[in-house]
Amino acid sequence: MKLKTLLLTLCLAGTATFAQKVKYAKEDIKKMETYLFNEGFNTPSPKKTSTIVLKDGSSHKGFCGKIETKKGQIYEVSLKDSITKKNEVFNAEQITEMYVYPTNAEKIAKVGKYMGNIRNFGTKKLTKNTAGGRIHFVNQTVSLKNKKDDKEFLMQLINPDFSDIISVYHDPRAKETGGFSMMGSPQLGGGVIKSYYVKKGDKVMWLHKDDFEDNYDFLFGDNAEFMKKYPKNSVEWDYLSFLINEYTAMSNG
Description:
This protein is an alpha+beta fold. 28% of the residues lie in helices and 27% in strands.
């Protein structure tokens, strides 16, 4: 009898969970698949003036030459002062934020990559790959891939327009989902970035595609209206930028 009761309870629970699943219209899915994050760049241009703001409030402008990285993340920057022409070296621990420009070579490479995947045409804007605007780096203390000791790095903020609750940072070592290509033709499918660094409150973590469902409640669970409209069993990793943007808008009223 107890076994039957247990099975009935599990069955009802499963039915309730299934009933909560939302089926979206094709137009809504297309909107959710639109990539809203800025393009991630890894190489600052040494030919354009960069700006570094230190924790002591001072600002330094110059040409960003040599940079030191660990697992792709910047922890030291060499700057040739635009006025004195002297080389200065700054550690990430000294810096609050940094503004640099992407290299033309990397922009060209990203345009080629964009054109090489048919999926990009419907989900991304080409201007995100060619924009000449400044890239914003922010000092964050993180554990690389949630495995290493906490350390301060300069990380590229890729959702500056909707980062007041959840900030998303470019993962230079991120991999992408695979697709299909035949005889040099543009790739079909794939091309979805698998990981980012995400900050909410005081917590900064490496968020991988495989861990998205496990961290869904942490990211969005404090907004009941959002969770009802976008329950975890109805959305996909591909929608992440849309979901964070939507969650921010709904949370801010």
